[in-house]
Amino acid sequence: MADYPVPPRRAPRKKLKMPIFGNMMGGSSAGPADSGKNFSTYLFGIVAVMMVAQIYLPQLWAEKLYDTPDELTELTLDGAIRKKYADASNKNEIHYILVVKEKGDTRKKIDLYLADPNFFDQVAVPMRLKKEAGSLAVRVIRYAKPDTVLNIRMIKK
Prior knowledge:
By secondary structure, the chain is of the alpha+beta class. The chain has two domains: 33-62; 65-151. 24% of the residues lie in helices and 28% in strands. It has helices at residues 35-61, 69-74, 118-122; strands spanning 65-66, 77-90, 93-102, 107-111, 128-131, 137-141, 148-151. The protein has a seven-stranded mixed sheet with strand order 1-4-3-2-5-6-7, with no helix packed on it. The chain starts with 34 loop residues before the first helix and ends in a 6-residue tail after the last strand. It comes from Aquirufa avitistagni. Keywords: Membrane, Transmembrane, Transmembrane helix. This is DUF3592 domain-containing protein.
């Protein structure tokens, strides 16, 4: 029939297998038939752990925010200001936030939303703050000037 020689047909190649996933794609194989079942069990477990982590981890990692007048009055501070920023995502509610790192490596996040913004304007990042519980007088320790006592005035809204 043909004038030229036809090469012999070669055998099909072996299927490639992934180490973890095994024979998931089906087809004929010499391995166990339940490797897809194992993978789905692992996948279900991983998804369940991720969903539980999404629910509980943000609550565990969140810092306490001191923002009400009672919390600010009962707050004791003895540390340095590490962050100072304003959250103005809503123009009607501007949150003035200070992050104070105390001596025991604890951080306190203070929201001065209900306070007069003059206190926020007068403090800066390297300053140290000392405040006793029961009063709104804050002693500000500056590096270039003598200590100053500033009062946090609450605004009724």
